[in-house]
Amino acid sequence: MSTEPRSPPSQFAARLRHALGGRAGWNGFVLQIVFVAALVWIGYEIVANARANLEAQRITSGFGFLNNTAGFDVSQNLIPYSGSDTYTRVFLVGLLNTLLVSIIGIFFATVIGFLVALGRLSPNWLLSRISGGYVELIRNLPLLFQILFWYLAVLAALPNPRQSISLFGSFFLSNRGLVIPRPIGNPGFEPFAFALLIAMVAAILLWRYARRQHFQSGRVITVWPYALGLLAGLPLVSVLIFGTPVSFEVPVLKGFNFAGGSRVIPEFVALTLALSTYTAAFIAEIVRAGILSVHKGQMEAGSSLGLHRGAVLRLIVIPQALRVILPPLTNQYLNLTKNSSLAVAIGYPDLVSVFAGTTLSQTGQAIEIIGITMGVYLLISLVTSAIMSFYGWRIGRSMGG
Amino acid sequence: MKRVSLVFTLAFAAAFSTQAASAQTLKTVKDRGMLSCGVSQGLPGFSSPDDKGNWTGLDVDVCRAMAAVIFNDPTKVKFVPLSAKDRFTALQSGEIDVLSRNTTWTLSRDTSLGANFTGVTYYDGQGFLVKKSLKVNSALELNSASVCVQTGTTTEQNLADYFKSNNMKYEVIAFGTADETVKAYESGRCDVFTSDVSQLYAERLKLANPADHAVLPEVISKEPLGPMVRHGDDQWFDLVKWTLFAMIDAEELGITQKNVDDMAKSDKPELKRVFGTDGNLGESLGVTKDWVARIVKAVGNYGESFDRNVGAGSKLGIARGLNQLWNKGGIQYAPPIR
Fold this sequence. Notes:
A: alpha+beta; MetI-like fold; four-stranded antiparallel beta sheet; two-stranded antiparallel ribbon; B: alpha/beta; D-Maltodextrin-Binding Protein, domain 2; 2 domains; six-stranded mixed beta sheet
């Protein structure tokens, strides 16, 4: 019986790489070029074949439809839009609606998630039980059910516009949404905005100066009274010189609905509420896990330095926990964005509803439209991931890790 | 995610098949032993399942008639419920053999979808349903109203056209399915529900208190509804087309479910051609000689099917109107079987 000496795994890996074409020199290079060329050729053949087949069946293909007139209206558009615009415009309107609900949803989900996590870790018995109950209830119910609940059970129970709940005679809440006065810029608006901008920049510089002083000499400068004075004072001066920056157009009931003012549609509110509360339940667990992953000794060390509980959490625990939290948190952000496509169930005009829905059925160009839609979601997800990675990299760098 | 899977089927077929879609639908259907028929997700009168899961309706009868012609058995149909926006992809991808789903015949659909309309089963038009308590008597009083509509229909564009040409403002809220649309209308999110008039009558039945809602008199569009088949199979196109024509011709000739056996024995040359006792018209369609008799035995003539599903004999109680035969004041007209 002969025993061969066992080769270390690294050699196996090297051999595998060699076998797969990772050869040095021209040999490997040429092989890789051929491989890429073959892939490109196959891709081209698939597209060309598909075009020919669709042509043969007289199914219109290509992207020419994007320049055709859409001819339908959309209930919420962040950019000016009417039925006489093109499908490209519809696409942009839908995309912006998706981004709006995603960004606002991500913001609220993060805030609620962090609060619930801290609540669950709190020594207060009632608070921690309520937070725990929230997580278990919300994350175990289907999201679509929750969206429909907010939309059909909560918001639809509001009175009709003629009996709407009025606040100061200028805010109106009804089953058509929340109507608020719309600000209209006066001539004094630009100086006002400029003054506010200067005040903000000055306040930030002041704060950074104070921090540097704190680190270098230990001298503590109280910044906030100065910052507040700047932020309130400069715009006030502008108002005194140039007049009020904005006036408000107050909505009035006219016919079936309110005319004038700005409106937040109930579909948007229901979707944002459902998405942020649902995702918050998952984020809460991620944050809790992240905080628990920081060793107890860190907290004790912080306390022994004389820091109070809030400072320990803010300066020592959270920065370390963030490194654990960030990757799964990114997943939740991506999930929220993708889940926003359930919008069509309650008539919120997101990308899937107006583009992969109405536009698709009006033009019949399913392959192109689904392709574009998938590409857009992929792009949104990749950008979100990239931003989160960058943030994670910065945290890692600032911690010297 | 049905839509996405349908699109993948279509994309895959287009990308990898080496020739145009098979032109042998009739053979495929016979081999399968079942007709695959695309219908609505539940529209009373046109296509909806009853409490035992049996599909009934005017659109359903067209498919049952086809199954009767092909298999001599009107039950050999697999009904595939489709939302408005999935329907064309389902037809293109080959998931269904025929789309019989209250679909409006328009030029762009006829030319760009790779499919053909085979005829008109129901002449419809778009209307408005409102709560009576709003005291609205005309669609022209709807300025500033909120309107609920089902997405993926011709309705959305007609609506935009109508309000624009009458210089009225409105807010549109578009939902994925008819059920969601009606629910939002009922909850008070909208003042108005708009759709084809026949559908308004059908959906009104589902409301908690149908008598509180009224269909406004204006009909703002032409909506000829009919079945669709894929391009590239003329034999199948002919068969679907003539199944409907046979139902209409049967009514004109007075052939009913009751008297079909007696009529089949008639000596009239016209009836002999129809029943295949003279000539081989059925065989030239690729089916048996007694094809018309099979249709009438299975679902009755057009008038019988209409009455049973949407007309006087049904809960909907819609008048024949435009759908009356051409010689009785309507516009339903079929080419002769000869």
